[in-house]
From TrEMBL:
GO molecular function: acyltransferase activity, transferring groups other than amino-acyl groups
SUPFAM superfamilies listed in its UniProt record: Acyl-CoA N-acyltransferases (Nat)
Domain N-acetyltransferase: 8-145
Protein name (database record): GNAT family N-acetyltransferase
């Protein structure tokens, strides 16, 4: 399913996306707070192949983000649980030249609209490194509520264990969040 708004298109990932993603995927800024770091084409290919396996198993939906002229990044929902009607939103990396623009907010709006209005999920979970101030502010700006902090939670590519802020967005809050996001996006 292709999701689209304001010249931003989220298109399901395919293996051929490697050619466009590798133009910026190895920028160190993208991986400063990451659990993993992509350093070369082989690692990017493995990342895409892993994403495709998760898509095939129906545990994730992975999109590549485009504008009218180029590939901008990638994002996904994963750990989709039809029994609890929950999923995790994340694995987002956006070309640094588009960071700080409305690209991320529009992408998250499209995904939230899809998961709450089409998939009928009840809750989205977002996990962010506590030290990643920009991503924490971005989660709050789309209406996510901080639920807990898990200390020494996940090992990063640097070998340290990060503290993780766990945010949620619930379906019963979606209509209010939707209005707020549309106001921010359409300014």
């Amino acid at each position: 399913m292709v999701l689209e708004k304001n010249n931003i298109r989220l298109v399901p990932i395919v293996s051929e996306d490697i050619n466009e993603l590798k133009k910026f995927a190895f920028d160190d800024k993208l991986w400063e707070f990451g659990l993993n770091k992509l350093s070369n084409t082989a690692e990017l290919k493995a990342y895409i192949n892993d994403a495709l396996v998760k898509v095939e198993s129906s545990s994730a939906i992975v999109w590549v983000i485009h504008n009218a002229n180029e590939t901008i990044g990638t994002t996904r929902i994963a750990n989709i649980d039809c029994n609890t009607k929950t999923a995790q939103l994340g694995w987002t990396w956006i070309n640094p030249k588009f960071q700080g623009t409305k690209v991320n907010k529009i992408s998250k709006y499209l995904i939230l609209q899809y998961v709450f209005e089409e998939l009928n999920l009840e809750k989205i979970i977002i996990q962010i490194d506590k030290q990643n101030i920009v991503s924490n502010k971005a989660a709050q700006s789309i209406g996510a509520k901080l639920q807990e902090i898990i200390t020494n939670h996940l090992k990063t590519w640097r070998g340290n264990y990060r503290d993780t802020n766990v945010y949620t967005i619930e379906k019963n809050d979606w209509q209010n969040i939707k209005i707020q996001l549309l106001n921010k996006i359409d300014l």
